[in-house]
Amino acid sequence: MIKQVVLVAITIAALAQTVPHLQAQSDLKIPRTPEGKPDFNGVWSSGGAERLGDLGDGPARFASAPNLPKVEPLPYQPWAEALRQKYLERRGIDDPIGRCLMPGVPRTTGMPMPIQFLQTPTEFVVLYEAYHAYRVIPFRATHPDDVEPSFMGDSIARWDGDTLVVDVVGFNTDTWLSGVGTVHTDKLHVVERYQFVDPETVVLEATIEDPGALTKPWKTYFTLRLKPGERIREYECGHNNEDLLRYQEILKTDPRYQK
Amino acid sequence: MKRASFLFGCLFLAHTSASLAHHSFLAEYDGEKQVTITGIVTELDWRNPHIHFYLDVTKSDGAVEKWKFEGFPPNMLLRNGWKKDLTLQPGMKVTVFGWQARDGSNLAHSRHITFEDGHRIVSGPPAGTGGGQPAPPPRQP
Asked: Do B138 and A221 make contact, defined as CB atoms within 8 angstroms?
């Protein structure tokens, strides 16, 4: 009980912190809706396509927002760290997205394909090119009583000044948080804060709380750059997933996986 | 020194792009088995989640060896300047750089393709992508 109280206290303290460089700037000229809210409508990139496609022939094609806080290692409880190590030793062959499953939150934002925000006064919709994922996020709502555990969870939105805050619960355990083996439990709770840092750049700060797997909340950050002229295309991962077929052969023949 | 630089490069790339790929590089490919293969394109399989393309490679004894390469998904290639049916066509002579499959077969994970006129295009992600490192830190400009 004491441990739970401490975890809740730490969470509240973490959520209450404001990243210094993300403090509201009254003189920041950002796009706004007719209602005066920040206008996130558009297609955005988190930089994966630009970074992975960069052969070093010229200047970097994508830069993160400046002065983002350092991302610390995930503060895992011993059992979760042991499980992560096992997945690392297995060289990531168990990664759910290798089976074309949706990456979950917040990992999906880091996929190397663009996302699109569709914003109305009552809903915030996110379309992810990767894995056909989408989230329809209502404002002024509470999480339903009958939330079923899912890959992308159940999201609700509210405004905190010019910051869009999305609260996400109701996850299954078939996603990883970030890189290989970054497991979580069904107690996962994610709070996303989307904030403009210039008219074409948004920083997403994701605070991850999971009293089942973590010793304290953990934060990660994504830089999103507006991509005028870009559009969401189709990405049907299951069309010709030869990697999965090769995995099956590797699992049968490589001694690494016979332990 | 060259080997040290390569390993550093792999570690850096693995760290910065670990969560960005569809599949694990390290499960299938060996980041220390670099290959540079020159041959004639015979086929391009333009499908998700990764394209594949094939080369006929003529060896010194005249025998023809078939090689298969994996690359980015089509959408990633389009965003990196590719045009379907134009960029890589059967009959073209190309040189592909990549990393060979761990099983030693003529399968490799391609990184870039160089054409006869010398120009080079990216064809796949760096070694180590999806290989199992913690969350990538934000890259500073």
From this structure: yes
Specify the pLDDT at position B23. Answer: 77
- Fold adopted by B2-122: OB fold (Dihydrolipoamide Acetyltransferase, E2P) (2.40.50)
Could you tell me if A215 and A77 are in contact, meaning their C-beta atoms sit under 8 angstroms apart? yes
Residue B107, C-beta contacts closer than 8 angstroms, at least 6 positions apart: B67, B68, B69, B70, B100, B101
Please judge whether A63 and B20 are an interchain contact, meaning their C-beta atoms are less than 8 angstroms apart. Answer: no
| Residue numbers of A between 1 and 40 with CB closer than 8 Å to B | none
Return the residue matching tokens 């404002």: A139
Q: Contacts of residue B126 in chain A, CB cutoff 8 Å?
A: 52
Contacts of B73 in chain A (CB under 8 A): 235
* pTM for the structure as a whole: 0.87
From the list A241, A48, A176, the residue with the least C-alpha distance to B126 is A48
Interface ipTM: 0.87
Low-confidence residues in chain A, pLDDT < 50 = 1, 3-18, 20
Q: Does domain A2-22+33-227 have CATH number 2.40.128.20?
A: yes
